[in-house]
Structures are given as structure tokens and as C-alpha cells.
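Q: Is it fine to ask for two folds in a single conversation?
A: Yes, each is treated on its own. Send the first.
Q: Here.
A: Result:
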Amino acid sequence: MVKIGSIELGDFPLLLAPMEDVSDPPFRALCKEHGADLMYTEFISSEGLIRDAAKSMQKLDIFEYERPIGIQIFGSEIESMRKATEITAAAGPDIIDINYGCPVKKVACKGAGAGILQDIPKMVSMTREIVNSTHLPVTVKTRLGWDEDTKYIVEVAERLQDVGIQGISIHGRTRKQMYKGDADWTLISEVKNNPRMRIPVFGNGDIDTPEKAVEYRDRYGVDGIMIGRASIGYPWVFNEIKHFMATGTHLAPPTISDRVDAAGKHLSMAVRWKGEHLGLVEMRRHYANYFKGLPHFKEYRMQLVTGESVDLVNATLEEIRGMFQDQY
């Protein structure tokens, strides 16, 4: 049984990665429904929380059915992160996660996210301060290092464990790689197989099929897998992996009706959470993923992303169901 603190996650948990503009409550609800064992929010700016910025505060929204749920925070100032931890804990998550992995320029070049991989002593000090300022278990999401010459993750993971984190998720790329090239899981495996490590180690990067999940579990010995991009528009990936791990056989892929129902449910929850205008706008990035692989989909996609009311978008979704249900 894999545990973070006292939270039991099963024998080989599948985690939903925290993804900016993706891992919001509507998307998380679908992933939970389809088998995610532990989910994290989008990352939240510590400075935004301290300033009471509306966008940051709204990202603290979590719901009972999501549990166990972790809220992820990021920032470059230790004192701001300590204050943000207290604000975050008051929102009632099960876990607080620290983002030491985001590679995007506006975050990393200010010393937050993966930027802190250039200052390991500060990373350790910040982590200690966060652990000491909350009763909740603290986890970390990070990368192998800043670049090819600074892949210190084996030592870093040990030092973070020593200051009290209770789980670590490692993306198998450096910051310099961004999302290019293949993720390298060999160092993730070294972290897991370090005899000094006592906390669960989760691997992240490039898992997009049940076969790959089983292969990487067996080859690298991790405690669980964190899934990010493969789940966008395809929340079924969690149960598909679980089924394959249990039986060695594949679940039938979602039908066109399943896809339409999921997109419609996602839209409905987005509108309920953000209001009609914002809900419609924020759903636009998801449609191409829900209907990936459909022939001649461009025209429908244009209708979905330009529809100015929920009724119009739902009408287009029903049109898609009618057009493709005999083929898929």
C-alpha cells in the first residue's frame, strides 16, 4: 500500500499532474470518475494568494468528491511561500505540493518552478520552511535538474526527504529540455532505488498507453505514475491503465457517444464553476483533444470554439454524435 503521510493510495496509484489551465475542478471531476487516485490543482502563485488575487484564490476551490486532493503552490520567496502555505492549508486540502518543475520562462526565470533547481540550498531551505509551517503532508513535483550538467535529482530528493517531504513526483526531463525529447526515467529509478529513500517516488513523463505504464512500472520500480498530457481530452486513460495492469487486456475505447457525453459534462461543470462566458472560452482548448482522430473534424471544431452559448455548443456536440455514432 502506497501512502503519503496517513493517506492510503492503493498498491500502484495513478496521479493526475497539476497542469496550468487544465487541472481545474471540472477536468478533475472527470479524471476522478475515470480512475485517478490522487489529483493536484493547477499551480497557484504564492504572491497571488498573499495579495488575495481573485484568480489565485479561485484555484483553491476543492470539493469533497475529489479527495484525496493536493493543492500546488509556487513562488521564489521563502517568506511568501510560508504565508501561502498557511492560506492554502485553510482551504482544507489533503496535501500541499510544491512546484519545483514548471519550465516556462515567466516562472522559471524568476527563480520559481524549475528555476529553483539552480539554487539547491534555497530549494531545501524553502521546503523545510513549508513543511514546518503546516500539519499537512507536503509533497514536491520537480525535474531531473536545470540542464544536462546539473542532474542532481538523486541527492536533491534525499535532502528534501530529510527536511520532511512525504512524497516526490519527478518529471524525467531537465528544465532546458522543456517537453522536448524523450523523458529519461533512469534517474527516477535511481531515486527510487536509493536505499536511503523511504517516501513514495512517482514517475512522470511520456506515459500515454497502458503498455508503457506497465513497462515503466516494471522496469523502473516506481511507486506510482503521474499522468499529464495524455489525460487532456482523454480522462479514460486512468481506468484503461488500471484495467490493463490487472488483466493484461484492453478496455474498449470510448465511443463517440462517450466522448460527446464527457465533453458536454465538462462544459456544463465549467460553466457552473466559472460562469457562462468564461466557461465557454476555457472549454475551447479541450475539444480537439476530446475528438482527436475524427475525420473532417475542422468544421465542427470551428463551431465548438465559436459557439457563444451553451445551447449552441451542445447542439454541435449532438450533431457530432449523430454524424459519427455509426462509425465509432
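Q: Second one now.
A: Result:
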Amino acid sequence: MKKLITGLLLASSFLASAAQTEFTPKQLKQVEQLKENISKSNLSFNILESLTTEIGPRLPGSKNDALAVAWAQAKFKELGFDKVWIEKATFPKWQRFSESGKILTPSEQPLHLTALGNSVSTPKEGITAAVVLFETLDELIAAPKDSLKGKIAYINYKMNRHIDGNGYGPAVKARSNGAVEAAKKGAIAYMMRSVSTAHHRFAHTGGSHYQAGVKKIPNVTIANPDADQIARLVALNKNVTVNINVQTKNYGEGTSYNVIGQFNGSENPEQYVLIGGHLDSWDLGTGALDDGAGVALTMAAAKHISDIKRPKRSIRVVLFAAEELGLWGAKAYFKQHETELDKIVAAAESDFGADVVYGFESNVNAASLPVVRAIAKQLASLNVQYIGKNSAKGGPDLIPLKNTTNAPIFELHQDGTDYFDYHHTADDTLDKVNPDKLRQNTASYAVFALMAADAKTTIKAKPTQ
């Protein structure tokens, strides 16, 4: 116990030393004032309410998507950002029109489903066929050639629930590639259990892909209670026949815009901390959790910082376009800025709902860790723990950045235990957002962004391998 206490005291002493080296007492007092101001503010919730109420769902390329771009520009200007601009992003435009389903045998029952993004339509009367159940994508891949002729392939893989959402990656593989593998075996349609932890009867949509040279077949997910029903029927050795009917359209290339707002730094404005989220959403709900919350809290965080001071380096908020259809806005942003990525001193995206931030993690040069630890010390009062692995991955829209160059990337880990109950469903609406938790998120991002932008030492990326 004595050794543990000694170790904790040494760690505490080191953190205090790091803070004193990188930040003056005046700067640390400003950080405390920032936290205090946000604790009394509803700004982030008000922004989120405006976006989800006045605009609603924001499928890339839709009329609402264009309205959201205009909304974001106006909101940045209303909040007093020094610079506001847009940058073009193109993507494969897709739209759903209608969808329905039902079990026909052994008895007629409703089937709650939704088309996956990019799915082709069924015939107007739908597709009626027997269901062949597989528990995993690997099992479908292993099925004999032509074994699914005239059938509907169905994957029943269940996603696990975890605070960090680690069940999403394994489950989403079937969403991305299942229709291709089913078509290779002769299936005329593909169906899967929702990539979701929910017990409600909402189907989960999401992106899916086709492969050149492989027939495109309709591609749907079904709500988890319906998935359980089909699994029970199959377990009873019943011949399960369903009708699925989805009407969609692919339009070719669509256009939208990244919307960017910046508060200029007082000493080195060309360097900046990048925070943000993605402006688009799926069309089933209003995109409150995915990713209206990320949009709102990062806009609000930057505004709160500006009310305290202009830090040494700029604070840039990027609202990425067309993330849901394949990170198209992020790809466009980092391509356009590829010759100046070294100006990013820290980057973090909020795209995991609105539950509390519980952990703070970096991915930076070891020489920058004293700054990181000083930030972590100030986040502790918000109940955010420091994760010292220094291997943060960042949000989805930072993937193109990581693929382009090494960059100082951060993660403010949010509690995702319930996130996939609502993710990509009609249940992703404003009432699922707790204002107090959103406020804690806002404060966490604000503290991180202010201190990263105002540190004595510029945070650096890990050396290129």
C-alpha cells in the first residue's frame, strides 16, 4: 500500500510539474473559468435542438442536406466565428422511397425491415422466397456454389453490448459485404439481423457495397425482435418464406459540402486544433446522436473558448459531409489540405453519441506527452480518466488523415453502452440526448481544444515509420 501511495504521489507531482511547465497560472485559471461557464450553459443542446428540429434527417444529397449546409454556415456566423467557409465533396447519391416486409409461412406476420444504403430495388411487387439462415458471414462464404439459387440469404449474427462499442466492427462486416457473398451463391436477395444492441422493433440501416462482376441484389436488415422470431421458426424446422419490398434509386454522383468555422489564433493562426463531427445523417431518424451531438458540442466548445480568449493557435471546427455513405467529406477535406496537414496540432472527432466522456487518450510524439498529461489533469474534474496507451485511433472522419500522414490524434472516449440501441434507426431523435451529459461532452472538448491550442509547446505527431 505504501508503494502504491508513493507512486500516486509521484504521478500527481509529475502532472503538476507538466502543467506548470506548459501553462501559466493565468492559463489554468482560464481553463477553470471555461468549465464553470459551460456548466451553466445550454448552448450545445440549443444548437442540437435547432439542427434536429429545423432541419431533421440529413441524407447526403437530399434537400435537407442542402438545408443543413446553409444552417451550419448561418450558425457559425451567429456564434461569431472569425472565418466560415465551405468545401465541395462528391459521393454516390442514393435515396430510399418505400420499404415493407412480411413473413408468409408458416404464418403471415409483419416483418420490420429497412434497406441498407446503396441497395438496389426489388421488383414493384417485391421478392418472395424461402429464407436460408447463417449465423455468420464466414458461414455464408463457406456455403456451396449455387446453393442459394432462388433463396434469400439471412445472417443472424448478434452484436454484443460494450462501453466502447467493440461489437460493431465484427457485426458490420456482414452489412458491408453480405449481399456480395450471397449473390455469389445464387441468392436473389440478402437479409440480416440489424447491427444493433436494441430490443426495440426498429431496423438499423447503414452503408453497404456491391462488387463489380457480381449481380446486385436487394439488401436489407430486420429489427432484432423479428430476427429472433425468424431464428425461432428455423429452430423449429419450419420453412420460412418472406416477402421483402424496397424501392430505392441510385443517382450517380452527388454533391455536398464540408462546412468549416474557425476562431483564429492570436500568435500562430496558421496552426490549428481540429475538432468536429459529420453534418449528414441517415434518413430514418433526425440524427440527434449520429452525429448531431458531435456537430453541436464541437461548435459550442469552440464558441465557449472564444468567450474566454483567443488561444495561441486557431480552433477549427469541421462539419464533414457524406460520412454515412463512405467518409466522402473527410476524404475531400484531407485531400484538399494534404500539403498543410502538418499545421494540425491536434485532431479529435465526436461521433459516438452523447453519453459521457469517460476517457482521454492521445496518439502523439512522446515528447508531447507532458502537454497531454497536463490536459488530462484538467479533465479529471469532469470525471474523465487519462488512458496512457498513446494509441488513440480517432473518429471515423479522421481515418483519411491517418491514411495520409502521421498526425497528433486524440480520442475523448464516450460511453457507448447504449449507443447502438439507437444508431442508424428511426429512434435516433432528440429525446435520447441528456442535456447534462451533452454539457459534460462540451466541457471535455473545450478543455482539450483550448489547452492543445494554447500550450507553450506545439504538440507533434509520432515520427513517420
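Q: Anything structural to flag on that second result?
A: Two points. The two ends are 41 Å apart (CA to CA). Residues 95-251 form a domain with the Glucose Oxidase; domain 1 fold (CATH 3.50.30.30).
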